[in-house]
Amino acid sequence: MVTLADVARHAGVAAGTVSHVLSGKRSTSAATRERIQHGIEQLGYRPHAGARALASSRTDVLALMMPLRTGIHAPVLMEIATAVTTTARAHGYDVLLLTGEEGPEAIRRVDGSALADAFIVTDVGLDDPRLPSLKAAERPSVLIGRPADTSGLSCVDLDFEAAGARCVDHLAALGHRQIAVLGEPPAVCARGTGSAERTLRGLRTAAAAHGAGLLHRPTAAGHAAVAAMLTRVFEERPATTALVVRNEAAVEPLLTVLRRDGRAVPEDVSLFAVCAGQSAAQASAPLTSIGVPAQEMGRRAVERLVAQLGGQEPPGTVLLAPEVDDRGSTGPAPTAAPAR
Amino acid sequence: MVTLADVARHAGVAAGTVSHVLSGKRSTSAATRERIQHGIEQLGYRPHAGARALASSRTDVLALMMPLRTGIHAPVLMEIATAVTTTARAHGYDVLLLTGEEGPEAIRRVDGSALADAFIVTDVGLDDPRLPSLKAAERPSVLIGRPADTSGLSCVDLDFEAAGARCVDHLAALGHRQIAVLGEPPAVCARGTGSAERTLRGLRTAAAAHGAGLLHRPTAAGHAAVAAMLTRVFEERPATTALVVRNEAAVEPLLTVLRRDGRAVPEDVSLFAVCAGQSAAQASAPLTSIGVPAQEMGRRAVERLVAQLGGQEPPGTVLLAPEVDDRGSTGPAPTAAPAR
DNA sequence: ATGAAAGCGCTAACAG
DNA sequence: CTGTTAGCGCTTTCAT
Lengths: 340, 340
Known about the structure:
Two copies of one chain form a homodimer.
Chain A: H1 4-11, H2 15-23, H3 30-43, H4 49-56, E1 61-65, H5 74-90, E2 94-98, H6 104-112, E3 118-121, H7 131-136, E4 141-144, E5 155-158, H8 160-173, E6 178-183, H9 186-190, H10 194-210, E7 213-218, H11 223-236, E8 242-245, H12 248-260, E9 270-274, H13 277-281, E10 288-290, H14 294-309, E11 317-320, E12 324-325
Parallel strand pairs in A: 1-2, 1-3, 3-4, 4-5, 5-11, 6-7, 6-8, 8-9, 9-10
Antiparallel strand pairs in A: 10-12
Chain B binds a DNA duplex through α2 and α4.
């Protein structure tokens, strides 16, 4: 193995000088710098991560904790993971992957043994069991998502409340007076996921403001569950003219059921998705939607963490503004009752 | 920070003794062992990963490289990542996540700087550019997937050739004489992915053996592409009575199109999926399928790596046997031409 | 069964 | 601008 000492000898300088050329932490004459650079390339030198971590108490590693839970849409997670890793590399960091299995203990372990410099945590519950570990940790963290109490924490999240509101605004402007929401899977709602609760709040507030009716029903994945739920919704509220889908796994089944029932989109019923943009865009009929900016959330989380590690930027919450992609699945509310 | 020296002092022993109690590499009297264990808990001692790596030249970290490329089904990747991480933890390892962006250089970097003890690489192409780096690395690796030349490499993969063969066997036994395959997305085929090529070989060989006709068409994701492809297939081979789907993103669109065209499954046309089991199971009509055992591949890859790091088990290829899940989407070939 | 001591490869503080 | 000198916290011989 080629060590820094080898490089130093090769260049006829002291080890410290090589170290400083590498880190750029002090000025070096162009001559020696070039001799050192040359030696590094010629010998194929790579700094030893462990030695560096020991001496500097920095690992240049970020820990990314992403539980794979039921009801979570895998493509969004992958997008976050990719964005985090890419952005981290751009800042000189590697990424340690933690899944949910270990829970809060994983954070204590990684923090205690100095395996990483900071944490990024996804799928945060309103009262997430990992929060105490994160607060107690010696290292900073950024949550992707938002718990009920964000004091002392850094968060990056889509403004789901605003998303819900914009969705209803959009539909109300088209004359819809009775809106039904196929919500996140029951498992997700039961878990106390902030995004579900906040979206609903936004929907309700806006509906009230417009004087529109709003029916919310958590909906499981799969064709059968969606079909049953849709039947029930139209029984409970026959005047429904707009549906909001808050669940990637319900999009395609929903379209199938509507087709079967002979309800035309958007003539008989308007559809608005609040979910992963790709699911809305690639459906058999593209849906107007507000997407989850997974990539931007991952990127921003890393950038904030890097800033915090650099001593800039205090903790705090960053909310991303929702954006509506109109794909034509919403239209004016039908004046008569929809075709049966 | 609590160090090993603190624990030693607390227990009134030498540092080396504490180290040996931790690793169990030599026998210790029950008395001192207990005193030390007690001290560890009381002080909340955690070994410093960097220091350990430096002294032992082992990191207890596995590097997992998974590119997120177009046409790859995210849920399968997530399943692999979760299985790898869970299994790794069960063996005392953590996981460093590498995406594809950096390519072969990432392997050189991680290997050279001793960031990990071994590599797991997914989505391996027949002539993957990362292979030279892996072979040159000082650390062992296991591929999930199989390149054209496996000499000197360790691989874990589904036996896709057998999968193709079993699929055709299944259909031929039901009397189908003309089979069409909606293949992996063009991007995946063009990349030279082993699974695509090997599945096709298995399909063709078995078709020839049964004297059945086989039409293979790479198929892009999305409703429109699938609809167009299906029309074309039935024009080219009007006698087609069975369809094989080798593409998760084509499953649901395919079902929609068949419904629209009034082709009943399995009365008019039999459907057999060779793709992620979940996509086949949760479709609006569940499909008989051979699934990709993502979880087992991840688990086996880690287990093999751990064995190799322990000096047991030489490199080599492990092929997992395909398993057919019959969900009723295949049936006897219709005697007349299918309904139009 | 235990202790002592020599590094592992690097950083950083201090001289010069 | 550069060399020297301590460690960072742990593992691992070699003695005892």
